[in-house]
Amino acid sequence: MKPVDERFVDLLEERRKDYDIVWVSRSMKPLTPHRLSPDVIYTRKQTIEAALSDNRVMGVIQALAAARGVPVSTIVAEAQDILHEMASKAHLPTVRWLALLITKVLKRILMSIRLNKSLLYILKDQMSILQVQYVYAPTHRSYLDFILLSYVLFSYDMALPNIASGMDFYRMKIVGELLRHTGAFYIRRSFASDPFYKEIFRAYVGSLVAHSDRAIEFFIEGTRSRSQKTLAPKFGFLSTILDGLFRSNVPDIQFIPISISYDKPLEELLFAYELLGVPKPAESTTGLFRSLSILKEPFGHGNVYLKIAPPISAREYLDMTTRKASALSPNAKLPSQVTKRVAYAIVDCHKQNTVLTPFNLISLLYNERIHSHPREPYSLDDLLLDYSWIKNIFMQRFQAIVNPTAANTSITDNVVDDTNKQEVLESLKTHNNLLEIDFEQNVKLKNRHTGVTQLKNIKGYPLSEKTLKIAVPVINLMIYVNPVFAYLSKPAIAALCINLPSKESALKRYSMLRTVFSNEFALPTNMSESELVQEWEETIQSMAKDKFIQQSSENQLSINNDRLHSILCNLITPFVASLQTICKTLLQWDYSTHCIEKNVIKECQKRVEESLYEETALIKHPYSLSLDTYTTLLSSLVTCEYATIDKCGLYNSNRSNMEEMVDDLDNILNQCSKGFYVEILSSLIPEEMTNLRAKL
């Protein structure tokens, strides 16, 4: 691929100058990316018929009919119902009218939609030549993700893809069918234990891969990341797509990773409550209309950034031996290792192309200030100095993309006396419901807890109002801190291993933490010892090159930059505290209740809540109340053989290994900063106070 112009443009800039109705009604011939001869392209009806006539589907139908003692036609009818429920029904006129509505909403709630459009033009050139199937693989940070991507493609006269969607949207009156007309096809969330549905799904997706002239779109993370961190990839849907290449139904499949970043996700407060165990509201048309209250505040959600990466060729991950296996045996299966390698290639590309917003850095700095300078106010002047410093660190040392400007915006919007100051002030204005400048020009956290505690089906421990008052805004803040892990996960783990007696002991700790936190930070799993050593050496060399650490002649590592070391350690400490909590919970389980996941995470939350108010406790951070972290860690502890789980879902600890790990975790936490959020509980600014605009 030729060198790419990495400049961003604002997609909404032109829309603010035109008549929306004229734009959506323009003459269009959307580019279909999968170049096929007309006789090979399937209609919706042909796609359904192809899935029904699939040999494996027919085999399951006949077996199911025999098992139930019913005619084959009965099972065929059930299969048809599933496929009609599943299949998309693209309709350009519907897309046009939805584009009109979406344009007006986006222009109201967003300041800009920034993307690197030059890569889109390169992709369009490729698509008009290459006869391969394309798959859009965006990150999943908000329900707005698939709307935004479709809107971008529509804006550049590119056909909307076949979009994998959950049944939650299908059940929404009117909306479900409207989305189907934009290309959505609906799949159930879990069907691993249903071979009938599984085979129908496999056949339908296989037909799309080989016979649809439109691309496919799916979220490799499987679900929205409430934490706004990259989630570990899911392999099922990806494997189904790759099967078409494995069986030579297409010459190649090109995956297009797209990283989407939000100044302010629409669901930010819902995410904070969900991480604490409050269930999300069910998707409904009524709820959709209720959510239109976001239109009250013009530009209230800031900017959105889409960083489109060059495509990843799946063919490069299939060696000749694997291809021969498929040719020699129709029953051969795609090796799972191929799927995993492609999955982590996509996820790693997401991380490398993550756009950091100014508020990501502001939140990181505020979190650090609470821990490193407890009881000291954080002045706006100090924040501005720190912001310039940390922004330079990210851009120079970690090659991060921070708040890229739009090349097509007017000069008056881009040229400012102090760019960094402008970024900070605009970001604080967007987030004045979370962080605000008080009358003394100090940055203060605001109370975001709405008092919604008497809800049914709370997944975790019933936390007190006092705890929720501090936990909700802090977790809300950490949602904005977490995207920096795209660049800092391995350096942060390594930072906890510096200053140990020897490089060998540092490597041992790194291997332990890196292995257990693999899923939490979406790092490749099942690495060999030599691969871990190589990763450690590369991480250390990178940190030494930047003069962050130095290595003595005695092979001991030491810190050169105390300030950055503190930020890295305090960034990852809440996760270390969660790991320590869950290990101690498993080790000390009294078995008066079943040691199942639900009970374990409740007990973990209870222990963390108690620790937050104990001055001598090692757990200081409310983010250690997050249920998602415990769910991920439980799985990792089993994978790493620190714990076992039986057929009934009961957990048991591998006591000797786990006790050794807990001792090391205690040592880590004992060396961490002593500041903690509970100390600022009394100084939280009530949410109704909004003096920021006056200050600015």
UniProtKB/TrEMBL annotation:
GO terms for biological process: ether lipid biosynthetic process; fatty acid metabolic process; phospholipid biosynthetic process; triglyceride biosynthetic process. Keywords: Acyltransferase, Membrane, Transferase. It is a peripheral membrane protein. Residues 134-263 form the Phospholipid/glycerol acyltransferase domain. InterPro entries: GPAT/DHAPAT, GPAT/DHAPAT_C, GPAT/DHAPAT_LPLAT, Plipid/glycerol_acylTrfase. Belongs to the GPAT/DAPAT family. This is Phospholipid/glycerol acyltransferase domain-containing protein.
